[in-house]
Predict the structure.
Amino acid sequence: MSPKKKQHVNRTGVYFLADEHRKLYPAYSRMSIHDLIILLLPRWRSMTLVQRKPYEDLAKQYKRTRMLNNENVITPVIPSSEEVSFIEKNINENKFLDSYFSMDLIDIFKRNLFFVTFQIFCRTDDEDGGDYYPAEIAIMKYSFIESIKQEYFTIIKPEKFPVGYTGTAIDLSRETHQIPPFDFVGANGDYKRIWQEVKRVIGG
């Protein structure tokens, strides 16, 4: 029989709570860290922000250590991918502004401007894909001559959060936009329809 594949576990605050339980209580030491996280999730969700803070701090320290280790691998002369991306983005923005402001004023007033805003429930760590879980999108097409031409807004029903990120989503919701991640009647889970509406505003 082939050995069971080890399951990847996100090093979030609840991971370090589970790790503490494995060290303090022998009965838990025989459980896999993944199963123990599942067992402790209800307790994690009931904990206050103050109670969670020591474990969240450990998670942040772990991420900082990983980032420093990764940076040490990079040759100082060679810019990191983030630096290259930043430089390219600024070059492209400058080119766009140069071409935009060299246009005739009437053409500028006729041009479409797009305003897009998002709210999110959470973003996974880079090591877990760096995926965003959107909570809300609002998009508007506008021109100085015609004012608002197209617009779309919806609350987005999230897909299932990865293990260890549900608490993050709940906290971010409570502390920022206050869009509930679960059981929100007005949430839209039709991702295909949402994308169609976004394309309608952009190209309609």
About this structure: Residues 49-73 form the longest helix (25 residues). Strands lie at 113-123, 132-143, 147-155. The radius of gyration is 23 Å.
